[in-house]
From TrEMBL:
Organism whose genome encodes this protein: Dermacoccus barathri
Keyword Cytoplasm on entry: no
Keyword match Membrane: yes
SMART domains associated with the record: acidPPc (SM00014)
Annotated Phosphatidic acid phosphatase type 2/haloperoxidase domain residues: 121-222
One Pfam family here: PAP2
Swiss-Prot/TrEMBL keywords: Membrane, Transmembrane, Transmembrane helix
Origin superkingdom: Bacteria
Residue ranges crossing the lipid bilayer per the database entry: 41-63, 94-114, 121-143, 155-173, 180-201, 207-228, 240-262, 274-296
Official protein name in the record: Phosphatidic acid phosphatase type 2/haloperoxidase domain-containing protein
């Protein structure tokens, strides 16, 4: 494929005109895996911000302002049990998530972005990790439950760390590599998020809220970098398989959990609650990772 030539815009600045889901037609000879309206929806930072904010507010309100949802959430937390082997391999590793380990990984992502001469992506990684985790800690500390059946634990701090680092890795990665990172990022976020439920550290809604906070900050980071960067870059418009790749990563984490001895505590009702609690967690992780990956490719290159 020939290299695209810069074209002047209304202000006279040169921008690279590249095939895009949002800003142009699919190149001749390259199959389109999504219709144009769906592509516009996928790559829209405004849509991502609206969906994530509305979903977070809904989860926050339902699970901290209604007694029935609070009771179900607590039952979801207690729906599974873990063998000693599962505890060692799933719950114990969560203790290694510390401020030092997070800072080390974030510094590595910043170095990768700067090595690619993409300072904007380094800024995006810092915003996602820093902003999402500060937001989580503020809500955990100051948002009350009403009726006050128990103290608020939403969003989950460990889940926020895992998802924000996964998304930061995707943002700083080269465009061609992002889709290959999707299953690994979904696996990591699911493993930690579901692990906090299995270890009875957090309720399911705590984890879901954490993922949505990370999605919201990702939308803001991508939007900011899109405004700051001086030129567009070649984009990878192969979006359709990313959700499936994310589900594969999440399912792999689930299979590992089952193989290590995670089971419903008792009765069919606990089985249904465990499936909902852990299943929605995995699907949401896959959805968030796939969406950010696609939006980053389309907007940032």
């Amino acid at each position: 494929m020939s290299e695209q030539q810069p074209a002047p815009d209304a202000d006279g600045a040169a921008h690279v005109v590249a095939p895009s889901a949002c800003h142009g037609a699919t190149p001749v000879g390259e199959p389109s895996d999504l219709t144009e309206p769906v592509r516009r929806f996928v790559c829209s930072v405004r849509t991502m911000a609206f969906v994530s904010l509305a979903s977070f507010v809904l989860v926050l309100w339902v699970f901290t302002r209604t007694a029935r949802a609070q009771v179900w959430d607590e039952r979801g937390r207690m729906s599974t049990g873990a063998s000693a082997r599962a505890w060692v391999h799933i719950v114990d590793p969560l203790t290694y998530i510390t401020i030092g380990s997070v800072a080390t990984l974030l510094a590595a992502f910043v170095v990768i972005a700067l090595a690619r001469q993409r300072a904007g992506l380094a800024l995006a990684a810092i915003l996602v990790v820093g902003g999402a985790n500060v937001t989580t800690q503020l809500f955990k500390a100051y948002w009350p439950t009403s009726p006050h059946l128990w103290d608020n634990s939403l969003p989950s701090g460990h889940s926020t760390v895992a998802m924000s680092l996964s998304l930061a890795a995707i943002l700083v990665a080269p465009s061609g590599a992002r889709r290959w990172l999707v299953p690994f990022a979904a696996f990591g976020a699911t493993f930690v998020g579901a692990g906090t439920i299995v270890g009875h550290w957090h309720r399911p809604a705590d984890v879901w809220a954490a993922f949505l906070v990370c999605l919201l900050w990702s939308a803001g980071a991508i939007g900011l970098v899109l405004k700051l960067q001086l030129r567009r870059h070649t984009r990878d418009a192969k979006y359709a398989l990313r959700p499936a790749a994310g589900v594969v990563g999440s399912m792999t984490a689930g299979l590992i959990f089952v193989g290590l001895g995670v089971r419903p505590l008792d009765a069919d009702l606990k089985l249904a609650e465990a499936i909902v609690a852990l299943g929605v967690t995995g699907l949401l992780a896959a959805f968030v990772v796939a969406w950010v990956s696609a939006a980053a490719d389309d907007n940032l290159g």
